[in-house]
From TrEMBL:
Protein function: Catalyzes the formation of acetyl phosphate from acetate and ATP. Can also catalyze the reverse reaction.
Cofactor entry: Mg(2+); Mn(2+)
Residues reported to bind ATP: 15, 209-213, 284-286, 332-336
PROSITE patterns: ACETATE_KINASE_1, ACETATE_KINASE_2
Similarity-based family: Belongs to the acetokinase family.
Localization (cell): Cytoplasm
Organism phylogeny: Bacteria, Bacillati, Bacillota, Clostridia, Eubacteriales
Protein name: Acetate kinase
Organism: Bianquea renquensis
Length: 398
């Protein structure tokens, strides 16, 4: 059974995990920070050992990938004897557009299709492609697999993905809802079925991926039928710094008042809004949580607005699926903030959902947090996108 290197490339960062697929255990993981910027460094953590910090100039992603491979094969803190032990590389790719409804072996044609999706995700896809090319250059004989954030949502019906704008914008430019966090939503929904001991085909599940970026997904019979993010990750829930859903006319109104152009306005919606914008405190939910505990009205206001938006999406998806068996919470906030989980679930007493306060008083542990007699189950499921990427990679490289 092979060892898979999972790569998640950002514009100035590169996260990685090396997973032994025989045991599905992480051999090492790490992060290259500040690629192409002063002060670049690699944090490398072999399983069961201390983190090694290597400060070295990384002018580009080629150098970053080389440093990762060097760290993995290092005689002191490495975990493999040579690069040939890496059987395949799985790459996280943010946007696959309509071209990809599943993970694929990366070929020249696949790269071309990924480039065509780049204008839909200008911050992410070019970085993902740079990571793929850097790996191909250094590991020319190792198979590479692309796993797309959008792929899981390609099962959405037309009525869920179309916007109320002229249809020609869809036919000409593919303007539609794509959704993101698909790899996480897929992993978590599969775990829900396993924990409940029921076939996923028989379940209606709502997954709440609540982190700095946040989305809700309706999974009916194992397939995504709707999700809160749209053409871009800006739509949907109130997030760390993103506005989520707003009346589009707000943009024109503020642009006139503040004398902003469209790029400046988008910067406000992407980077200065959400929890940060409402609270004025921070985009970090942990600081908002502390603020709520201290009785800070700004923190409480932001927290309550966030919760309310999540609740509205869950309610609408329960209606869209004509039923609900389980709600799952995952990602940074979903896994670690029991108060927010309880607050969200408190709205669904009418569906027969009751949270058990004792079961809910945990962080980051896979567990059922609802009571035994709760008609709708609530679960905490730590996500593992890297493992999902590695599993797809093995499946495709068989």
């Amino acid at each position: 059974m092979m060892k898979v290197l999972v790569i998640n490339c950002g514009s100035s960062s590169l996260k990685y995990q090396l997973i032994d697929m025989e045991t599905e255990s992480v051999l090492a993981k790490g992060l290259c920070e500040r690629i192409g910027i002063d002060g670049s460094r690699l944090k490398h953590t072999p399983a069961g050992k201390d983190t090694v910090v290597l400060e070295e100039v990384m002018p580009d992603h080629n150098k970053a990938v080389q440093m990762v491979l060097d760290a993995l094969t290092d005689s002191e803190y490495g975990v493999i004897s040579n690069m040939q032990e890496i059987g395949a590389v799985g790459h996280r790719v943010v946007h696959g557009g309509e071209a990809f409804s599943g993970s694929v072996l990366i070929t020249d044609d696949v790269i071309k299709a990924m480039e065509e999706c780049s204008e839909l995700a200008p911050l992410h896809n070019p970085a993902n492609l740079i990571g793929i090319r850097a790996c191909q250059k250094l590991m020319p004989d190792t198979p590479m697999v692309g796993v797309f954030d959008t792929a899981f949502h390609q099962t959405m019906p037309e009525e869920a993905y179309l916007y109320g704008i002229p249809y020609e914008y869809y036919t000409k430019y593919k303007v539609r809802r794509y959704g993101f966090h698909g790899t996480s939503h897929r992993y978590v929904s599969q775990r829900v079925a396993a924990v409940l001991g029921k076939p996923i085909e028989d379940l209606k599940i709502i997954v709440c991926h609540l982190g700095n970026g946040a989305s809700v997904c309706a999974v009916d019979g194992g397939k995504s039928v709707d999700t809160s993010m749209g053409l871009t990750p800006l739509e949907g829930l109130i997030m760390g710094t993103r506005s989520g859903d707003i009346d589009p006319a707000i943009m024109q109104y503020i642009m006139h008042k503040e004398n902003l152009d469209i790029d400046q306005m988008m910067d406000v919606l992407n980077k200065k809004s959400g929890i940060l914008g409402i609270s004025g405190i921070s985009s970090d939910f942990r600081e908002v949580e502390s603020g709520c505990e201290a009785g800070n009205p700004d923190a409480i206001r932001a927290n309550n607005a966030f919760v309310y938006h999540v609740v509205k999406y869950i309610g609408s998806y329960a209606a869209a699926m004509n039923g609900l068996d389980a709600i799952a919470f995952t990602a940074g906030l979903g896994e670690n903030n029991g108060k927010v989980r309880a607050q969200i679930c408190s709205y669904f007493g009418f569906l027969g959902l009751t949270v058990d306060p004792e079961r809910n008083a945990v962080r980051g542990v896979e567990t059922i947090i609802s009571t035994e007699d709760s008609k709708v189950k609530a679960l905490l499921i730590p996500t593992d996108e890297e493992l999902m990427i590695a599993r797809d990679t093995v499946e495709i490289c068989r």
